[in-house]
Amino acid sequence: MQRIRTILSGFLFALVFSGSAVNAGELLITSSTILGFDAGMIIEGSQEVSVGKGNKLSLISPTGKVINIVGPYKGVLDPSVSDRNKSKLLTALSVIVSGEGKDASQLGAIRDAASARGRDPYRIDVSASGSQCAIEGKDLTLWMPRGEKLEKIWFERKGSSEAAVVRWPAGESEQPWPKSMPVTDGATYQLLLQPAKTETELTLRVIHAAFAANKAILAGAMGARGCDSQAIAVLQMPN
């Protein structure tokens, strides 16, 4: 998995900053209710499919185009595609979406976290430890996804004297990132959630703003930095 993340990271950098074109012949299934069309599968955009009434199929191309199909439907997935070359980007994203290398409980937790994010994949989940991604230049929002009582958060950057207290009004699910706390790529922040005294430790990964113009590339960049639930949430965003 780490090798795939390293390859993907280098590929994304070359893609964005060299202006190379992305192969457009393939599509990645991001979600599906159709037997045999599983999330994480890569299929040809020129393929004809039959989708029964009530079934749903969501896909994304390397160019960031999102395709949502709701049955009944019969026809070509994306008539605009013609290039049948393999896309390294979609191959890497397939690993993230399918959960290759993860057990069922790990994959379920990632997908549940992605689903909970809904239409906003950029919020920083204060209840979760691990890597979380932010977009360069975009204001950060702290988010409490569950109904646990929260009054305040003690916030400290690990290895430094930088600290802050975030007051959390009753009934609120979001608060802005503390202004006194620098947003630093690779920095680890220790959080103590009061009154439950729950401790979390998050490592912030700042994604270059250029990646945000293309959902597939953005999701790939997030996946390369270990932000899998955010990557899946980005892929599931509507156009």
In short:
The chain contains five helices and 14 strands.
Write the layout of secondary structure elements.
Blueprint: H1 2-18, E1 26-32, E2 42-44, E3 48-51, E4 56-60, E5 66-70, E6 73-76, H2 88-98, H3 104-117, E7 124-125, E8 130-135, E9 141-143, E10 152-157, E11 163-167, E12 174-176, E13 188-194, E14 198-207, H4 215-224, H5 228-235
Parallel strand pairs: 7-9, 8-14
Antiparallel strand pairs: 1-2, 1-4, 3-6, 4-5, 9-12, 10-11, 10-13, 13-14
Helix pairs in contact: 1-2, 1-4, 2-4, 3-5, 4-5
The main β sheet shows up as: 5 strands, mixed
Shape: elongated
Low-pLDDT runs of 5+ residues are: 6-24
Averaging pLDDT over every residue, what do you get?
82
SSE pattern? HEEEEEEHHEEEEEEEEHH
- What's the total count of β strands? 14
For the record, give the distance between the C-alpha atoms at the N and C termini, rounded to a whole number: 29 Å
Side by side, the strands of the main sheet go 8-14-13-10-11
What portion of the residues fall into strands of 2 or more residues? 25-35%
- As for the number of domains, it is 2
| Annotation field: number of helices | 5
The percent of residues in helical segments reads: 25-40%
If you compute it from the alpha carbons, what radius of gyration comes out, rounded to the nearest whole angstrom?
A: 19 Å
Structural category is alpha+beta
